[in-house]
Design brief:
single chain; about 725 residues; about 70% helix; about 0% strand
Length: about 725
């Protein structure tokens, strides 16, 4: 069987089990056994089917069995696990995926038990033999990651490693990462329970606890239909929820995963906008500040104020400011910088993608004879909270590849600049962020690097392509479904423009709090931003009943009515707004639009003129005044305004309308001139121009143009264009 065939067969089984279609699942398992020729599993399948038939028979006969629910749950669990075993058996023999390649490679070397590895870690952590410690830790990672479902003895051995305070914290971190990666490849109740053990460690093991909590949430999400079948999982989750800071930690993790969605946007923005604009701006800066003159005098420490002026005059300034705000928030702004710096030998070992940054790692110590500056840079990087562990290793290895002189200059600059940035970062951290948030952000970024950049990343399910809407998991609802947590998550979705995600939460919150106008406002806004004008209007009207004085809300209601082609209702709300805030330019123009849509052109003109009187700069009312004048037969007035518009910044529609006006005044030659200019602005596309022209024929007829003249004008235009070619 090919990997694709195995995956399809397995997903059909788990899909049936997820939908609680047990008979169909048994049929799919039977097919998988036949296709794979793994007949050793047939007896187990027959046993499960026999048990299920007995259960159904008792149920049909009306016998009340208090154990029926448990039996049914146990059958589902057994069916899932049987499918797992068959898949693993087939893939172990045939799959080329990294996980199974690593499982097969274990058998090529002498096996080391978990207790033996534990002893080696303890021994080498107490000596100066860092290399042996690193090798033992790598072996431990691979052994746990590629292991079969854990036995009771193996679980006990892993738990002992997790709880051993004599070991460096890196041991617990790597055990947790191996458990997570193993669980994402194949579900194992014992591995999940070990993550609960890790998440329950004392506060001094914060790094391990946070990573374990991230692993628990990911496992519960990926296996959201399956995990709740294990009573121990629900029990352990309930116990863990009683620990201090549980809800805050879960909320932090959820928000950080939402923020990780921004990474690709940030990368594209850097590559497509900020960096090209910096390159484009550089010659201008060079000319303005005359770099050649800087060597003629001692400039001191004062920066050239013109730099800031040049930056402020460009769109780059705003982009950098936005970029800086994202960095302060904790967004992954470094990803694009390190995309191409993951090819060092260090990253050939999968476990190293998750390893906390430690200056004492053997590959760092062996990269060169470290001088004081190099040791200082390691300490500086260790303190940098804005870089994930993976990127710190990348940066150090990149620096160590440079020639010695260049490296010393760079290290000197980095230590000076980075130390100040880290100092400021620490001060902000003390105010804004806690240790949990820093660890969460760094580890999620480490995970992101692995699933996006590892050479074999297509072999792994990319968790960052999943919605990861943890708040929708029923198993987590008792712990994060209270209004404050949900409102925080929804607000984060809203700020990041994930309106559909935010809407699911706001819908739930409005059902609980039917008297909260802000919730209805946000519900309406999310619906409006996703194109549901009717749904938005309904929510806005509910909010308006609760708070009749919100100007923002009144304008939103009016806009929805306009979108729904109900100008009379829109006018009603715009007039309400006008009473609350007279003289608002956009509102005056919209009132004019409503009157125009109602064909009350005289009233429309009154509001357009009022808006034009109040607006001394943008002249937004000129176009509607000109067109409304045309529709009311005031052609000279329309001509005057179209002249002003065309002398400013005309669009194709302005030239078209100016042509209509001249035609209505029987100035045929001027009309043809404007029409030709409109066609040129339409990229010489006569057919596209004709579509716009045809829409206006009813208005031309009202203006006194005979219908028979229309085709003549169009032909005259075609001839005029042909003569110019």
């Amino acid at each position: 069987m090919t990997q694709q065939e195995i995956n399809k067969a397995y997903h059909r089984i788990t899909g049936s089990l997820d939908n609680r279609e047990l008979r169909d699942a048994f049929g799919e398992i039977q097919s998988l056994i036949a296709l794979s020729r793994e007949y050793a599993f047939q007896d187990k399948l027959d046993e499960l089917q026999e048990t299920y038939r007995y259960m159904l028979r008792y149920r049909i006969e009306g016998a009340r069995d208090p154990m029926q629910e448990k039996i049914y749950g146990d059958l589902l669990v057994a069916a899932y696990e049987l499918a797992d075993r068959i898949k693993q058996k087939v893939c172990d023999a045939e799959s080329s995926l990294a996980y199974y390649n690593n499982r097969r490679s274990r058998h090529l070397f002498p096996q080391v038990s978990l207790p033996e590895l534990h002893a080696r870690l303890l021994m080498h952590s107490d000596t100066d033999n860092q290399k042996q410690y690193d090798l033992s830790l790598a072996s431990l990672f691979h052994l746990i990651w590629t292991s079969d479902p854990c036995t009771a003895e193996e679980s006990a051995a892993i738990k002992e490693i997790l709880c051993d305070r004599a070991l460096p914290f890196t041991a617990g971190c790597q055990v947790v990462s191996a458990l997570i990666l193993g669980l994402l490849s194949s579900f194992d109740r014992e591995k999940l329970l070990l993550l609960f053990d890790a998440a329950s460690l004392p506060e001094e093991a914060e790094e391990v606890r946070v990573r374990a909590m991230i692993g628990i949430l990911l496992t519960l999400y990926v296996y959201h239909k399956r995990a709740p079948l294990y009573r121990q999982v629900e029990t352990r989750l309930a116990i863990l929820s009683e620990s201090p800071g549980f809800t805050a930690m879960v909320q932090t993790i959820i928000l950080r995963f939402i923020l990780s969605r921004e990474t690709e946007k940030i990368t594209r923005k850097l590559q497509d906008e900020i960096i090209p604009e910096m390159i484009r701006l550089n010659p201008k800066i060079t000319r303005k500040i005359n770099l050649g003159d800087l060597a003629l005098e001692n400039p001191g420490e004062e920066m050239n104020p013109e730099w800031q002026d040049i930056l402020s005059d460009s769109s780059l300034g705003k982009k950098i400011e936005e970029f800086s705000e994202l960095q302060q928030e904790g967004a992954d702004v470094m990803h694009s910088t390190f995309i191409h710096l993951k090819s060092f030998p260090f990253f050939r070992d999968i476990g190293n993608w998750f390893l906390p940054f430690i200056p004492g790692h053997s590959l760092i110590g062996g990269a060169a004879q470290l001088n004081s500056g190099e040791r200082e840079i390691l300490e500086t990087m260790l303190a940098a909270t804005f870089m994930c562990n993976s990127d710190k290793y990348s940066l150090f290895f990149s620096m160590m590849q440079l020639p010695k002189e260049t490296r010393e200059v760079m290290i000197s600059q980095f230590n000076g600049q980075a130390s100040e940035a880290i100092r400021q970062n620490k001060e902000e951290l003390a105010v804004k962020k806690g240790k949990v948030e820093v660890i969460t952000g760094q580890y999620i970024q480490d995970l992101y690097r692995f699933f996006k950049l590892h050479p074999n990343h297509p072999d792994f399910q990319d968790i960052f392509t999943l919605p990861l809407d943890f708040h929708n998991l029923p198993i987590l609802s008792p712990y994060i479904a209270h209004e404050e947590s949900l409102a925080t998550i929804a607000e984060y979705y809203l700020r990041k423009n994930y309106f559909t995600d935010a809407l699911t939460i706001y819908d739930a919150l409005t059902r609980k709090s039917s008297d909260n106008d802000i919730l209805f406002q946000k519900t309406g806004y999310c619906k409006q931003m996703t194109g549901d004008a009717e749904g938005a209007l309904e929510a806005y009207l509910r909010a308006d009943l609760l708070n009749t004085g919100s100007k923002w809300l009144i304008r939103r209601i009016a806009a929805c009515y306009r979108t729904l082609k109900q100008p009379a209702k829109a006018l009603e709300y715009y007039r309400r707004y006008e009473e609350l805030s007279p003289g608002n330019l956009p509102v005056l123009i919209n009132i004019g639009h409503c009157y125009m849509e109602l064909k009350e052109y005289g009233e429309a003109l009154k509001y357009y003129f009022k808006a034009d009187y109040l607006d001394g700069k943008s002249h937004k009312a000129w176009r509607p005044i000109a067109w409304c004048s045309f529709l009311t037969g005031k052609y000279d007035q329309a001509r005057n305004y179209y002249h002003k518009i065309i002398n400013d910044q005309p669009i194709m529609q302005d030239l078209l309308n100016a042509g209509h006006t001249e035609w209505a005044l029987q100035n045929i030659k001027a009309a043809v001139t404007y029409y030709k200019l409109a066609i040129k602005m339409e990229n010489e596309d006569f057919q596209q121009f004709k579509k716009h022209f045809t829409l206006d024929i009813p208005d031309l007829v009202i203006a006194g143009i005979e219908p028979t003249e229309v085709p003549l004008m169009l032909d005259q235009l075609r001839y005029a264009l042909d003569s110019e070619q």
